[in-house]
Every structure is written in C-alpha cells, then in structure tokens.
Amino acid sequence: MARTAVSGRLRWRVATLSEARWETSTARTLALDVPDWPGHLPGQHVDVRLTAEDGYSAQRSYSIASAWPHPDGKVELTVQRLDDGEVSPYLTDVVEPGEQVELRGPVGGWFVWRDKQPAPVLLIGGGSGVVPLMAMVRARATAGAKQPFRLIYSVRTPEDVLYADELHRRVRDDAGLDVHFVYTRKTPEGWSSPPKRIDVAALNTYGWPPDFQPDCYVCGPTTFVETAADILVALGHDPRRIRTERFGGTS
After folding, report:
1. What are the CA-CA distances from residue 157 to residues 187, 189, 216 (Å)?
2. Which DSSP helix (H) or strand (E) runs through 141?
3. What pLDDT does 248 receive?
4. CA 194 to CA 75: how far, in whole Å?
5. H helices of 42-129, where?
6. Domain coordinates in residue numbering, the chain
7. 206 membership: H or E segment, kind and range
8. Stretch (H or E) spanning 107
C-alpha cells in the first residue's frame, strides 16, 4: 500500500505467530506476539520482512486489523493472498503458530481515527481495504465511543466478505454502527439489486449527508479510492475531511 506519514518508531522487531484463522478462502488473520510493542492507532500499518536462508529478503506493508489495547496483547494482520506475490502466499499458506517474522512499525499518522474526534464517521472499503477500517470499528468499541459509524463495503461476492460474522454481530448489538455491502460480481440470494460497482446512489443513500460533516475514510485499490473520493466531493463533502489509503491493482 502507498503510505506517506511515518510514526518515528521504525525498528525491526521479531514477532511470533501465536494464532491464525481464515477469514475467507484466500485471506488469513495472523495474531502476533510483538515484544515491546508501543501501541498503535486504528488505520496504521506495519512492514513485514521475510528473509530466506540465502539472505534474500522481501518486505510488504500490511494494515493492522486489531484495535489497541488488544485483549490478549496481540497485533493482528489480515493478509489477502496474491497468487503472484512474494510475501502474502507465505503468510497465508505457510507460516504456522510458533514461527517468526520480522515486523516494523507502527507506521502512519494521516489515515488514522482517534476516539476523541467528535464527528460521525463514514468508512468506505474496497476488498481488503476494509482491514484498517475494521480496526477503526474495533477501536470505537474498545474505547466505548459513541460517534455513529457507517461502513460501506464493496466486495466481489458474499464469500469474499472479511469479518462477516463479526460485522453481523456488531451491527446486531450496536445501534451506532451500520454496514451496507456493495457486491460487484455476485449477490446473495434475494439481494435487492444486481451486482454493481460503488456509485453515487450507494454513497448518497448509505453514507452520511454532507451537512453532517462526517470524517470520511476510503481504502482500497487505486481506481476504487479515486472513484469513491470523487463521488464524495461531488456530493458536497468537504475534501479536507476525506482521508484516503490505496494500494495497487484494480477492484
């Protein structure tokens, strides 16, 4: 993912995988024990480095999925497998509990949410771009914050939804959280609209009105982020309240 702001706490730590769970058939959440972890804000990311026996190394950036403090003191990453990737296939299919990776962070100071921000929040995620947004949802609950959240989540199919059970539970138990899905390839049985990409109607109907002055966070593939941000501006949202995070590829 493209990042700009840096927290200043950038040294490599050896993290031990304590638990792993599948979110979908291609995405896995890793719960890591990280010595002397300084804490993080929702929306920040880490760099993960793998080093082979011959000394070759590769590193990638991954958004942090968990809030801090985590109940078990873990740092959680949700990794989507890229079949042609150097790092993600190892993290999804190879590394097992008890094994170690190198981790550096937390990184980022712009695309973050703080529980002292009083405004309502609009989260717009495309695919695995929902990961840092989920960290914000979790952080809101951890802090007992009351700002109303709306999440618009664009995803290919129902089977590709990350955190499906948790999102359902959180919406059921928290009147201050609303989630709407936009399916781009296949919809659930009985869904009211055909598959489509995110559009003006979705953001106008399920987002906050501009006069509510929400803090908006948009994360996903570059084309998705540009489209969603342009729609928000066209609908009258203050560009200064729109924060974006993007990664390569298409939606």
Report:
1. 6, 11, 24
2. helix 130-143
3. 60
4. 37
5. 88-93
6. 12-107, 121-247
7. helix 200-206
8. strand 100-107
Q: How far apart are CA 132 and CA 123, in angstroms?
A: 10
**How would you class 39 by CB atoms within 10 Å of its CB: exposed for 0-12, middle for 13-18, buried for 19 or more?**
exposed
- Give CA–CA dist 33/14, Å, rounded: 9
Top-level class of domain 121-247:
alpha beta
Phi, psi of 202 (to 5 degrees): -65, -45
Q: Given the structure tokens 């009147």, which residue do they identify?
A: 175
- Residue 154, pLDDT score: 98
Task: Write down the CATH number for the domain with range 12-107.
Answer: 2.40.30.10
Span 70-100, pLDDT tens digits? 988 999 999 999 989 999 999 999 999 999 9
As a whole number of angstroms, the distance between CA 202 and CA 134 comes to 20
Two tokens, residue 133: 């947004």
> Which residue positions in the chain have pLDDT lower than 70?
1-9, 248-251
Q: Would you state the pLDDT for residue 9? A: 59
Place of tokens 């936009």: 182
Sign, Cα dihedral of 29, 35, 41, 47: negative
